[in-house]
Every structure is written in C-alpha cells, then in structure tokens.
Specification:
The structure holds 2 protein chains of 2 kinds. By secondary structure, chain A is an alpha/beta fold. Chain A has 12 helices and 13 strands. Chain A is 36% helix and 26% strand. Classes of the chains: A alpha/beta, B mainly alpha.
Chain lengths: 306, 273
C-alpha cells in the first residue's frame, strides 16, 4: 500500500476565526514534501487535523486511506513531531519514550537502542526538564524522529532551534526517509530551508492553498527574471529587447534592469545587434522576498487580528 | 551520515496494535515515573498510619481524664481512621494531576497521537491509578488499625477487628480512598487544568457540605447525606447518625465518580486537544 496523506476541503474554525480554509492536497510517498507558509497560516493546525488532535469543522483528511484514529497501530502509520512541546518535564526521556512505545507493544530494548543511537544515553534517565538548553531541542527532536517506525513522517518546523549540525542531520534524515519510499511531510516558514530540503511544495497563506507544485517550478515562478545590464549603448539595447512581456527600467545612464528575459536571451540579442555589454547579471530575487511577495496578501495583520 | 543510515535501517519495527492492555502498561510507566505520584502516595500512606498512631496515643493518654459523657461519645475507630482525612486530600489531588499534568505539559498530544481513540487512555488511567491506590491503602489502613488498637489495648478500650462493622469500615476506608482518587481523576479530565481541577475537587468534596448550612435545616438534613463526601464516608461509620447506610453510601459515591468519568469520556472524544 502506498503511503499518502490526502486532504479534501479541509477546514477548521476556532470560534469565528478560520484557521484552515478548504485545503485540498495530496502528500505523495518517495519525496520530501514541504508545507510552506508564514507563521499563523494554518500549517500546525493542518498537522493537528491530520493526527486527529483537533477535529475538522468541514472536509476530511486521511492517512493511507483511513482516518488516523482508525488505524490499529497509528504510530506505525505516521511518525509525527509537532512543534508544540509534548513532553512531561518531570519524566525522563527514557520513560517518556517507553510509555509511548508500550502502547504499541514495542519492546523496552528498542527504546534503549534508539536512545543510544541518537546519543542521548547520558541524559536519558534524567528528568526531561533538566536537560541543558543546548541539549533540549536537539535531544527531543532527534529522539522523537528516530522513534518513528512509520510509513509516513510528519514534522512541524523541525529545524527551529536546532544548531547547524542538527539541521544538517534532519535534512539528511528526511531525504533518506523519502528515498526509502516513505511519505515525508515537513512544515516550515522558511523558504530557504524548504528550497534545500523539499522536492515538492504545498504553500499556504491564511489557511488557503496558494501553490501545490515542485520546488523547482515554484522557485522559478516566484523569483521571476530580472537581469541587470550595463552597456555604453544602453538606449540602443533597450529598443532591441523590448517586447510584450518585457519591462526595461533605466536605473542610471548606461544601466538597465530588464524583467521578462533571461541573461542568455539578452546576451544573444546584444551580440546579434553588435551591442557592447559591460555587465550582464541575473538577479535572483532572494527566496524569502519572493515568498513574501507570493504570500503578502495572505499574511494576516497581527494588530488587526488582536 | 552513519547515524542516519542506522536510524532508517531500524525503522521497520515489529507491528504492534494498540490494545487496552498495552495502554494500561503504558499508563503504569507514566504513573510511576513522575515524582508527584511518589510524594502524594507517600503522604497518603504516612498520614493514614502516622496520624492514626498520634491520634490514638493522645486519645488513650487522655482517656482516664475524660468525662463519662465524652467516653460515651468516644469511638476508637473514628480516632483510628483520622488519617484518612488527610490521605483523601493527597489522593484526590493526585487523581486530578494524573490527567491535568498531561495537559499542562503538552504530554497529552503525545499520548493521543499514540492512542488516537483516546478513551483507552482514560480507562487505563482509571484502572492503573485505582489499583495502585487500593494496593497501597489496604495495607496502610490495616496497619493504622493495628497500631491504634495496640495503643488502646493498654486502656482496654480497643475494639477487635471481628467486632461488627469494624472490618467493613477499615477495608472500606481503602475503598473510599480509591474512589476519591477516581473522582479526582474524572474531575481533572473534565476541567483539564490543574488549579481548576483541584478547586473543583476540593470545592465539591469539602466546601459544599458546610455551604449546605445556608439551607433551611430540614432541607439541609435531607440533602446532606447525599453529597459525595458524606455518602462516601458513610462506609467508615459504625455509629448511627444522619448518614446513608455504609454500602449504599459508598455505592452512591461510586456513582459520583462514575458520572464524572463518564462526562470526562464524552468530552474527551469530542474536544480538541
């Protein structure tokens, strides 16, 4: 059976506030799917709905063809790490994992193995609240990611608060899991992070679906084509490159900003007409900027909401 | 990245379904692995035995100076079970905490992710916590009785275990404390907040009875025996008074606890976490 997460018109209201608004998407196995959106855009809520922690107001979401709660062994279906803390600070990491493992009849030996594996043996028997700050997120995330034996893995903002080594570890782990044919669903508000990790993107703003596409395609669309051209014959070049979908702005004498053509196209046009170029620089709009452009209308004004 | 390779290699695990029995094992791990359990249960056991010893020592010391009237009112068993008064607070509060601590720490999300049907978690908590309290409090009340009686024996005011109602009251104290714990658990699961849960528990158990005094006396007398505390404590009583018969009272108190757990169960399934 293929491991899929399928949402159909998924909607969630908290009071009169709509957190998730008619989301329809499918998360496919074998690739890392990024769940991208500004903070407060409904990503965490969607993940809670997938796990049945919250009930949907309308619509439906299934994991591998069933509601999450109807699976006989839910932890084997989805290994989830939600952003919100979910560990009793007075209980040791070992006992925390043991209690969760026991619900599925997973033996104590396996808990020991995993704790060893993620390098937590030294602190595993301490109360979780006593972990050092540096240990905290890393330890928690690693142990819980590693806990999963699941067909799908779902992580809410996994790189938040991790050191570079931890981030690297997570990225690698996600790609590995996907390459084994698992469904990997990872949320983030950081476009740059998703560009490095995800193959496919589901982009949301204010609870609504904005894009459901490959990362590559999204990046191309989002960044647009802006090329800076420096030429002593700038005005002549402007005449040659002008076209229906092309805008040219003269930034200063001899310096043009061309939108709608690639650097290659501009260079070839210039060569054809014997125009001398001193500079030809594609401007990659920063990913974060592009992402903000795309979701600008969907970012809720926090002051207005309060 | 050898660790990653190792982790992913470990992933296929023996398939295990979630069963009620497994959730019970899991809840036992949770219960025994936090300090509040140890503190509260130690308080309950020590209070039951220690207060019994202290109260009986004082009472037997004063018995010689007591007026005849006081002697007539004196009942060794009441002194003997005085510790139950403190034990019930410790156990009730722990019952609240068993569930509210999961909400305050966020652990409940992990619990319900592992057991998304949710109800097995509540039943397992009730079973594990109830049996734990019972297993500890039966020896505690028996020990309290033996200590007290050995102190009273010097003044020949002791009352044998075989005396009518004594065995029922002593063992009943342990049963009563168990149901107190379950009542706390039910209230905690309804309120989902530690301070609110403890307030609800203490309010219903200990504040409601004196509040009844604002009612006209005959209403108060008619209603008071049916309040949770009075109903439950009737199992401890071996003297006549304005209370239900022992087993009827305990059964009613069980009904309160069951009602609290039933309301909690309905809400547990319906509410967002």
């Amino acid at each position: 059976m293929t491991a899929l997460i399928e949402a159909q018109g998924l909607t969630k209201d908290y009071g009169d506030k709509r957190a998730v608004d008619g989301l329809t998407f499918t998360v496919q196995p074998g690739v890392v799917t990024g769940f991208l959106g500004p903070n407060g855009s409904g990503k965490s809520t969607t993940m809670r709905l997938i796990l049945g922690l919250d009930g949907a107001t309308a619509g439906d979401v299934t994991v591998n063809g069933k509601h999450y709660r109807d699976h006989a062994a839910p932890l084997h279906e989805v290994g989830a790490l939600l952003e919100a803390r979910s560990v009793h600070t007075g209980r040791s990491a070992f006992n925390h994992l043991l209690a969760l493992a026991q619900t599925h009849g997973i033996p104590r030996r396996r808990v020991d193995e995993l704790i060893d594996l993620v390098g937590l043996s030294e602190v595993a028997k301490k109360r979780a609240g006593q972990f050092s700050l540096g240990h905290g997120p890393t330890a928690r995330d690693r142990s819980r990611v590693a806990r999963g034996s699941a067909k799908s893995v779902m992580l809410d903002e996994p790189v938040n608060g991790l050191d570079p080594e931890g981030i690297h570890w997570i990225r690698h782990l996600l790609k590995n899991l996907a390459s084994e044919g698992r469904t990997v669903f990872v949320s983030s508000h950081l476009m740059s992070e998703m560009a490095l990790t995800a193959d496919h993107l589901i982009v949301v703003g204010r609870g609504r679906l904005i894009a459901d596409t490959t990362t590559q395609e999204f990046l191309q669309q989002a960044s647009g084509n802006v090329v800076i051209v420096r030429s002593p014959q700038a005005e002549e070049l402007r005449g040659h490159v002008m076209g229906p979908d092309v805008t040219v702005v003269a930034l200063e004498p001899g310096l043009l900003e061309v939108q709608g053509l690639t650097a290659q196209q501009i260079g070839e046009t210039a060569a054809r007409h014997g125009v001398v170029l001193h500079e030809l620089t594609p401007q990659q709009a920063s990913l974060e900027e592009a992402f903000m452009d795309l979701t600008r209308d969907d970012v809720e004004f926090k002051t207005a909401a309060a | 990245m050898s660790t990653v390779a190792q982790v992913t290699r470990l992933m296929p695990m023996p398939t295990g379904r979630v069963t009620q029995a497994r959730v019970i094992v899991s809840e036992w791990t949770k219960l025994r692995s936090v300090r509040s359990t140890r503190y509260a249960l130690a308080t309950a056991v020590l209070a039951t035995i220690g207060i019994a010893a202290l109260a009986c020592a004082i009472a037997s010391h004063h018995y010689a100076q007591m007026s005849f009237r006081d002697r007539a009112d004196f009942h060794p068993l009441e002194v003997n079970l005085a510790g139950v008064q403190l034990a019930q607070l410790a156990i009730g509060v722990l019952g609240v905490l068993v569930i509210t601590a999961e909400y305050s720490t966020g652990m409940i999300r992990a619990s319900f992710t592992a057991v998304p049907k949710r109800l097995p978690v509540l039943w397992a908590k009730a079973i594990v916590f109830g049996l734990t309290v019972l297993a500890l409090m039966i020896p505690a009340v028996l020990l309290a009785f033996l200590v007290g009686e050995s102190l009273f024996a010097r003044h020949h005011i002791n009352i044998p275990f075989s005396h009518p109602g004594v065995a029922r009251a002593v063992i009943g104290a342990a049963l009563y404390l168990t149901v107190v714990g379950l009542f706390g658990l039910g209230l905690g699961a309804i309120v989902r907040n530690t301070a609110g849960g403890i307030a609800a528990f203490a309010g219903i158990m200990f504040v409601l009875p004196p509040l009844m005094n604002v009612l006209p006396t005959n209403w108060n007398n008619a209603a008071s025996p049916y309040l949770p505390l009075a109903a439950g404590e009737s199992i401890l009583s071996i003297t006549p008074g304005n209370h239900l018969s022992p087993w009827v009272g305990l059964a009613l108190f069980c009904g309160y606890a069951a009602a609290a757990l039933a309301v909690a169960a309905v809400l547990l399934v319906r509410r967002d976490t």
